[in-house]
Design goal:
Number of helices: 6
Number of strands: 0
Distance between the termini: 17 Å
Number of domains: 1
Radius of gyration: 14 Å
């Protein structure tokens, strides 16, 4: 049975994309935690969606740099949508810190 990721308290304010990716790359435990929450949120788990929203919000300048519309991610708390694009962006980044561990085991 896979080990359950430790939980992390929400920051005082959600982290920007750069900040959350930096934290993911620096802390394997956090990478596992936030990836687990993103996966649950994508499956419609309202609590996990709120957890992700408390940890992550793209800054307007990040949206502009990535050529994303200003309203991108404005529906992160919309639990009806299991294809929330904001979750896709974060889900793409979260395994980055975990992959080297998995490759060593293969």
């Amino acid at each position: 049975m896979p080990e359950k990721p430790h939980s992390y308290p929400a920051p005082k304010a959600p982290l920007s994309f750069r900040q959350v990716v930096t934290k993911i790359l620096a802390d394997t435990g956090y990478a596992k935690f936030i990836h687990s929450e993103v996966v649950k949120a994508r499956k419609g788990d309202a609590t996990a969606t709120k957890t992700v929203a408390a940890h992550f919000k793209m800054l307007p300048e990040e949206l502009k740099e990535l050529s994303l519309p200003a309203n991108f991610g404005s529906c992160i708390n919309c639990t009806e949508s299991k294809t929330n694009t904001t979750l896709f962006v974060l889900e793409f980044a979260t395994p980055a810190r975990i992959w080297p561990e998995k490759r060593k085991k293969d």
